[in-house]
Each structure stands twice: as C-alpha cells, then as structure tokens.
Design goal:
This protein is mainly α and 287 residues long. It has a single domain, classed as ABC transporter involved in vitamin B12 uptake, BtuC (Orthogonal Bundle). 82% of the residues lie in helices and 0% in strands.
Length: 287
Amino acid sequence: MTIFQILLPAFVASLILTGIHAYLGVHVVERGVIFVDLSLAQIAALGTTVAYLAGYDLHANGAYLFSLGFTFLGAAIFAVSRVHRKTRIPQEAIIGIVYAVSAAVAILLMSKATQETEHLKEMLVGNILSVTWPELFKTAVLYSLVGSFHYVFRERFLLISMNEPEAERRGWNLRFWDFLFYVSFGFVVTSSVAIAGVLLVFCFLIVPSVTAMLFSERLGPRLAIGWTMGTLVSALGVSFSFLLDLPTGATIVATFGACLLVVAGYWRAFRRVANEVRGGSTARAAL
C-alpha cells in the first residue's frame, strides 16, 4: 500500500468533517457555547465506558447506542438549562460543569476497566489515519441526513442562533428547538470524535467559523470561507504530516492554529490600512 492510499482516507475524512462542522460552528459561535462539542464528546465517552462495563464490545452497535443515548441526555440538559440573555450565569458555565463531572465519572469508571483504557482513550484522541472507506461512507450518509434536517428547519435554527429576541417575539419554544439542535449535534459529535478525536473536531468546528466571522456577517460567505479554509488546511496538514513524519491529527490541528494566526494578522493589517485610507479621504474632504 502506497503513502497516497494511506493518507487519502484521512484527507477525505477531513473534507467530510469540514462540511458539517463549518456549518454547525456558525451556530456554536453565535450562541456563545464554544465548548459544547467538548462537553458532548465527554458525555459520549462516558456512555461508551458504561457500555463496556455492561458487557458490550467497544466497537459494537450496542456501545454506540449507549454513547448516543448519553449524548441525548446531554442535549436535554443543555436545552433545559438554556438561560435568558440577561441572566448572570452564562450557559458556557453550565457546559463546563457538565464536562468536568462527565470526565470525573468516566475516570472513576475507567479505573474498573483497566484492560480497555487505551481504546477508551483513543475515542477522545482519535486516529484519523485508521479510518476505513466503509466508515467514511456511513459517516457521510449520517452527516447528509443531519444536514438535510438542518436545511428543512434552517429558518428556526438560524434565527434562534443569530437573533434570539426575534425568535422569542414569534413565540417559538426555544428549549424544544434547542433540544433538537443539540440532538442533531450529538449525532455528529458521537461519530466524528470516534474518527478524529476531540481536538481535531473542535478545530473543524470553531476555527473556520471564527475565521469567516472576520470577513463577513452573512451566512453564505461565512460558509464559503469556512469550507474553503477547512479544505485547504486539511490538505496542508495531511501533507505536512507525511513530509515531516508527524501524527496526522495533531499536525492538522497545529496547521489550523498557524493559519488562523496568519489570517488574523492579515485582517488586522487590512483593517488598519482601510482605516488610514478612510481617514485620509475624510481629511481631504474637510479641506
């Protein structure tokens, strides 16, 4: 098997992850729940740990259903704990508490499952190089279904994320739609973390969306920028991992960070030049 055959599935997996996570990242950033995917991922890992202690193989469908069920529980917690925009306690604090408690319980349970701790650890760290084509196909189908669901209800999901007061004015049940959002998010996180690990999934979710926000406030351009960045960074990361003989997932994460620094520096420089040009035009007009 050639290096190209080994790296190609990892690159395709990155493209699939980019497609859904760049979109979900828009919602996450607008809602201000930046670490919700980390919390849901930890809840999913807790579900897998419980499944193993219940006698299920970690790679069996039963373990996946346990993980998904725990993720649904997390979705319910986040929906019920939705806080009003004027509250003194931000929802991010609740998300952090859920993450910490889930991690602590998982550690306690893993102490009773010493033979499989490496497999449980891999669920959080991920190994994108080991992904197979059947896994990619199933993941692509799942993400397509989630994307179709969001497309059908795009008006409600986007308005709640970007203009909560207007959604309240229309009398929508925000907790119900939050629950549906987090459930769909849970399907994505449960599958993507098993492939790529928490760090890489977090980067796919947040970095393209944050980058796009620097240049546009409209959804269409933000998605285009996010998808373009995710594709280019994935290609660069996979290439660097091959050329420098480095772990692929960690290399892509580092590449995301470096590219974000470059883009942010360019944006600051561009904005400064634009302000100087504007200021010069204003001064000439005053004369």
